[in-house]
Amino acid sequence: MASVPYVGELITLSFMALALGMDAFSVGLGMGMIPLRLRRILLIGLVVGAFHIMMPFTGMVLGRFLSNQLGDVTTIAGGALLVILGIQMFRSSIQKERAPVFTPVGFGLLIFALSVSLDSFSVGLSLGMFGVRTVLTLILFGLMSTLLTWIGLLLGKKVQGILGAYSEMFGGSILCAFGMQLILS
């Protein structure tokens, strides 16, 4: 029966990875309207994926430290952080779409990857407080954000920006739901 909690954790982390990747997806939709070669799209997805590994890892290390120092209070704080991030994602989805002010090349690519992965630092902080499996979390976050970035960039060539707002709303709703689950458990 030890595999049942693992499966539950895998499903939960997969949904969280999807929620975090929605930001990269929605920004990728807008960025995909810039003429980009497939090589550039490949590189952008890999860099975003790398940031979605580095940022939550840093957050998880800090979260575990705080959890060891503060105990159960950190679980509630982590849940509250997820709810706040979810609300922020939801709110930003109903604001007017912003056109990218830079191209995803060089320093602009690093800024893009950092901007779509900042929320994964906070989620990593929360997850570190909760004590989830680090390697599993980082692999799921990195893979999901890479795939969703690629999909967003490729669809951005074909689709107008209306889908981006809905995907960010969905991502924010997922983060809120998991944050409430942490607070209430």
TrEMBL record:
InterPro entries: Mntp/YtaF, Put_MntP. The chain crosses the membrane at residues 6-29, 41-63, 69-87, 99-118, 130-155, 162-184. It is a multi-pass membrane protein. It is found in: Cell membrane. The keyword Ion transport applies. Keywords: Cell membrane, Ion transport, Manganese, Membrane, Transmembrane, Transmembrane helix, Transport. Belongs to the MntP (TC 9.B.29) family. HAMAP family: MntP_pump (MF_01521). PANTHER family: MANGANESE EFFLUX PUMP MNTP-RELATED. Probably functions as a manganese efflux pump. This is Putative manganese efflux pump MntP. The gene is mntP.
